[in-house]
Amino acid sequence: MPDLDKIDLALLSALTRSGRASHATLSEEIGLSPTACARRQKHLEDQGVITGYQAILGLDTLGLTTTIIVRITLESQNEEALRKFEQAIAACPSVVRCFLMSGSDDYLVTVLARGIEDYEHIHKTQLSRLPKVARIQSSFAIREIVNRSVPLTALG
């Protein structure tokens, strides 16, 4: 783990709130010159602490009003089954996250859909066709409570 000082953590915190903030804005917020901010940001990128920037989309405005958490259990947990499943799930356009898990479920998958009917279609055409799947259990999110980036308080 790279050594992060208070200034690095402040810079990361500011960037998680606004990845498009200018170096001038960042410098005012964390108390460094714009040049020093740029240098630190570049260093964090080079170290792999910052791996990219992305837009946070308004899912409702795009019609993606339903979030589904899907628990998947495979027929077998051998290396070939895991590899085939992971290649196939990565190609599913409705899947936004997939975790290999410990415990009773092998994978935890997040799917975005336009509604229950859309999810039924996704289930039939994407999820139920995944290789080596023994069981699929779906839960519908009622409301999002917390959605944040890395909790920087855990680092400092």
Question: Which features does this protein show?
Answer:
156 residues; alpha+beta; Arc Repressor Mutant, subunit A; Alpha-Beta Plaits; elongated
Structure report:
A four-stranded antiparallel β-sheet has the order 2-3-1-4. The chain folds into two domains: 6-46, Arc Repressor Mutant, subunit A; 60-140, Lrp/AsnC effector binding domain/regulation of amino acid metabolism (RAM) domain (Alpha-Beta Plaits, 2-Layer Sandwich). The protein is of the alpha+beta class and 156 residues long. 35% of the residues lie in helices and 19% in strands. The relative contact order is 0.16. It has helices spanning 6-17, 23-30, 34-46, 79-90, 116-125; strands at 66-74, 95-100, 107-113, 133-140. The chain starts with 5 loop residues before the first helix and ends in a 16-residue tail after the last strand.
Rg calc: 20 Å
The figure for the number of domains is: 2
Tell me the helix content: 25-40%
Number of strands: 4
Tally of alpha and pi helices: 5
N to C succession of SSEs? HHHEHEEHE
Oligomer kind: single chain
Strand order of the largest sheet: 2-3-1-4
Here the CATH topology of the largest domain equals: Alpha-Beta Plaits
How would you sum up this structure in a few lines?
This protein is of the alpha+beta class. The protein is built from 5 helices and 4 strands; from the N terminus they run αααβαββαβ.
